[in-house]
Input
Amino acid sequence: MTFSYYNPNDRYRQRAARRITFLLGSGFFFAIILGFGFWLGGMRAQQNMYILQEEKRIISEERDRVQAEMTKMRAESQTAKVRLEQLRANYDELLGGGAMKDLVSLLRQQIDAGVDMKRLQSVLLSARPPQNCSAPQTKRFVVDTPVYNGPGSRVVLPGDVVIVTASGASAQNAQGRKEAWFDPGQPVEISFKIKDGNTETKKGILPIYHTVVYGDKEYRFTVTAGDKSFVQLTHDNCDYP
Output
């Protein structure tokens, strides 16, 4: 008969050893996982830090670029303002006062109204100081009124080039009755009958100024009040154009 030796304490020691080994293995495994997690977290934090620094650099560069553009725009704006002031000063110096500015304004109105530029240029080129003008002559004639019963009165230029007549409102006496002569304080209508068959009229308070172009001559007229019933016509002629 054979007898085996069995010690119950060995069984407890083996069980305890297995438990310790399991705990140590589990702890080591969890330590590895925890370390990997810390490492991964550190890598991600480092990556985020790098991304943030790069974004900061890009934003800083963009800010500097915008500031440079704004500075450039301010400088250009200031330069443009100075140039505008210089142009205004040159414009005012070039045009001078009154008459020249009025002429430029009139030209602008004609252009805006659609007048052809070549036509305006032709008119301006044809305008020049009067040349080869005749000596002024003055004649008087009666102004026709609604109650005037006398013969018609007129001024006829040599060659019947222009025939000038006038009509106006009757003057009133102290009793309010109309007289035969015209009232120089009321509008007067002056007719200029041209040899080519056309008739030009001017109406207004005296004095009245008018110009008639016929052939190669420009006829200039000034009509002023004269003695009772009469007006005075002063006229001359110059080369045209």
The chain has a mean pLDDT of 83. The chain has three domains: 8-95, 96-127, 137-239. The first strand starts at residue 137 and ends at 142.
